[in-house]
Amino acid sequence: MTINEIAMNGSIKKPHFVLVPFLAQGHMIPMIDFARLLALNGVLVTVVTTPVNTARFKAIVDRANAAGLIIRLAELRFPCAEVGLPEGCENVDLIPNAQEYGAGFMEAVSLLREPLLRHLREQWPAPSCLVVDSCSPWAVDVARELGIPRFVFHSPSCFFLLAGRNASKVKPADPFEPFLVPDFPHELQVVKGQALQFFDYPGWEKLFAEIKAAEASADGLVINTFQELEAAYLDSYSKALGKKMWAVGPVCLVNKNLDDKFSRGDKITSVDEKFISSWLDERDPKSVIYVSCGSVAINSFSHLVEVGLGLESSSQAFLWVIKKVEMTPAVEAWLEEFEGRTRSRGLIVRGWAPQILILTHPSVGGFMTHSGWNSTLEAVTAGIPMVTWPHMVDQFLNEKFVVEVLRTGVALKPRILTMSISPEYEGLITREDVEKAVRKVCFGKPYALVVFVIGPAYPLELGLKEVNNDAHVAILGRTALSLASKKTKLYVISGNCNGVKLIKVEDE
Ligand code: UDP
């Protein structure tokens, strides 16, 4: 049975999917993309949101509605006051201090249960199914009360889900002692500190158990990835849980026109998007390294300085996003001088950048990333090699996937020294690390391995894409993935939805 058939719920002609995102940018952004994909396929979609979150993606939903897609918003009041959160703190990236407010935020999220149930009971047509982010197990009861199927939406990679699940069976005394992940499709060595599942940390035991139970009782799993990239992991994970899994990604590819690319996520930025576009237009093809650590990871002053000085000495043109919350007076003062020295080839965006627009611009040739899964998929689908600098949870395993399996990137720091990088950390990276990794990705031997056969929802739009010199990034399917494990260096592959043809392979 297809997901549509399950959701049809008998009498309703148009299936009505209710999407319940987790209120974090890295979870909401792919959920909104997924909503548009569903609507494009004739589904009526309701997205559960709160006022502050609505403001961030209203433009994109309005445009979709104007184009004839039916996406409704179930906007619920977020109960900040009830749990002692500052007003307006409706998304993970708005929590002023995770230690102090993290638990309150999760409690406020779970208080959406009753209002959501009331709201959905009044809807026509009645919801056919719920698609609930894995970090929002509170919505289990809503589906149960309404008597409709419920699917779990996984926003991280399947590589991470499988490795994290299987690694949890091993209990080493030292969190930094390497071990092999059991029952994994190929050899994978990790340390405990880099293979933890979401909320598998002291203090979050109850939520972690709820997440696991919600997954175990779900009617199926939906994941933002694609078969050709993660076939082996999808197969193993689906078998391990005894669940049907739908790989619906990469959902970011639904953003085709400039307006969508401009308005994805937050709009608060110091530089006008049109300026960013024209700045990139003026640069040579593949000459710019884009640097961003996603929506949540926060870097200390000293780490920002090392990144800046490393970029400066790499002689590479760069577009660097620094979050508003990282902009302390010390950072601002330092940046003033730094910008003076590097203005001819560097652009700093304070706040939020239109990432998809940047990654798909022809003048971008490398991406220094914190290895969030959305960012990773966005780079993979744009054919951009990465410098990986994971900060927390799934990002460490995403790095492994990119560096060791796909081989489309280099690690900024090959050895893991901490289980997360937060603003207090100093001295974990040096300017030399940054310079070396950036040079390797932008000027070094090509890392040409990017995989793309997009599911039937997407017309395949790629041809060969030059990475640098003689390398190409193109379409990889299962063939390429199996070759990757044999440590082949360069693949040049062309193809379309009907098949993938390997043109050339060079072994190391
Ligand atoms: N993003 C963006 N502009 C920014 C920062 C982030 O558009 O300045 C988007 C990015 O394209 C991705 C998402 O925010 O879709 C971040 O998700 P990811 O999983 O990469 O990292 P997280 O923020 O969850 O750590």
From TrEMBL:
A GO MF term: UDP-glucosyltransferase activity
Q: Does the keyword Amino-acid biosynthesis belong to this entry?
A: no
Q: Identify the keywords attached in UniProt to this record, alphabetized.
A: Transferase
Record domain Glycosyltransferase N-terminal: where = 18-251
Family from the record: Belongs to the UDP-glycosyltransferase family.
Annotated protein name in UniProt: Glycosyltransferase N-terminal domain-containing protein
Upper classification of the organism: Eukaryota, Viridiplantae, Streptophyta, Embryophyta, Tracheophyta
Which part of the entire protein is covered?
Answer: 1 to 508 of 733
